[in-house]
Amino acid sequence: MSSKKVRVLAVGDPAVEVYVDKNYKILDRWKNNNSIDIDFNIASWENYYNTMMEDFKAEEPNYDIVMVAGHFWLRDFVENKFISPMDDYMNLLPKDYEYEDILPIIREEMKLDGHQYLLPSFCDGHMVLYRKSIVKEVLGYLPKECITIDELISMVEKVDGFKGLRGIALKAHVSEILTDFLPYLRSEGIDLFDEDHKPSFYNDKGIKALNKYIVLRKYAPVNTNEFGNVEIKDQIQQKKAVFAITWGGQLGVVLNEQCEEPEDIGFATLDKPWNVTWSFALNNNSKNKEDAVRFLAYLTSKDIDKLVGSYAGSPVRKSTYLDETERSKCSWYDAHLEMVEKYAKPLPSLKGSGEILGILYEYISKAFNYELSAEEALRTAHKKIMQCMR
After folding, report:
1. Total Cβ atoms within 10 A of residue 49
2. Both 139 and 265 in a single domain?
3. Is 22 helix (H, G, I), strand (E, B) or coil?
């Protein structure tokens, strides 16, 4: 075995599982054709951020490559010098890499202030899934490919309880709830932060948005506040809920062979979704950056992107979306591409985003769980965030 090794820290997600799935042999193919070994470690979403931060601050890091939630974390990590620019290493990408094949909006997310910091793995944007047969029987029509929050609430209310199914499953675990709530906020014409990066959610519109999100809880399973990706998948696969909102990076897993009547599932996006591109970055403290980029050139190549797309649901390259073979396997590609290119809008890249956004996760969860009113939760979150920003 080679003495050279590249060490990767990856986030626990279906799109990442494809890299280590023995049936796909992605790592084996690399190891068989290269003199560089790979140590690929996956940490659960709940533990991922803390594991990564510990490694950034270690004198001797355990990882050369870390996965970054795109623009969500990028500015914070760059300004804290946790990750390195890739500008000087881009010439290591082979000619057949075809960087321009990556969707333009994703290429833009890979950079900050004109410098390349990331290479993309997969997207996570809001996608609405629903049972076509039930929606058609109850409402007499199917949703448009893009729907508003008010349209969603109206449809959910009408289908709730039909044939014993709940109207919607919400991904409202405390570690998921902020991004699940975000489209409701945007539907009122505001965002978490304004153009000057100041909190803009504590006002009548923000309170109205949070109350709309909380209202949907009465049409969801009682324990929807415990739901993450796995629970949402089960709700759709096992026909327990008519509607669900999940990430594009979950669609391949939701519609796998365990899904009941997958042909009955329809797809739409929200008119104000959010999308982030989970990506690979170089740990600034790594002493093995050239080998790391050579490995990433393989892991983010056209061939691997097709595997990520069919396995998990959310590729990042135009060629994958246009490939007729891939399209025949992935019926959601048109809707997903519309979400990424036409409707999704990023959040501002904030310094100190980890601590700031953590406050929002906590207090939105408190409102959803009836521990605080929507007004109290947003007011307290606003106050704490302003203290962090001083």
Report:
1. 16
2. yes
3. coil
Mean pLDDT of the chain: 94
Q: 337: pLDDT confidence band, cut at 50, 70 and 90?
A: very high
The CA-atom distances, in angstroms, between 14 and each of 7, 23, 119 are 20, 14, 18
Tell whether 47 and 79 lie within a shared domain. Answer: yes
Q: What 3-state class would DSSP assign to 230? A: helix
Where do we find the tokens 């560089």? 36
- The 3-class secondary structure across 247-275, one letter per residue, is EHHHHHHHCCCCCCCHHHEEEEEECCCCE
In this structure, the answer to whether residues 69 and 159 fall within a common structural domain is no
pLDDT, average across residues 56-80: 93
CA distance 293 to 26: 16
CA atoms of 16 and 12, how far apart (whole Å) = 7
Between CA 254 and CA 195 the distance in angstroms is 36
| CA distances for 184 relative to 179, 207, 209, 291, 369, angstroms | 10, 10, 5, 43, 17
**Phi and psi, residue 379, nearest 5°:** -65, -45
Please report where in the chains the tokens 């193919």 appear, as a residue. Answer: 29
Residue 254's closest CA among 181, 318, 169, 334?
169
Q: DSSP string spanning 197-228?
A: S-B--SSHHHHHHHHHHHHGGGGS-TTGGG--
d(CA 370, CA 176): 17
Give yes or no: residues 334 and 367 share one domain: no
Domain hosting 29: range is 4-123+276-343
Alpha-carbon distance 311 to 168, whole Å? 25
Contact assessment for residue 178 and residue 185, using Cβ atoms and an 8 Å cutoff: no
Q: Are 251 and 332 in contact (CB under 8 A)?
A: yes
Q: What is the pTM assigned to this prediction? A: 0.89
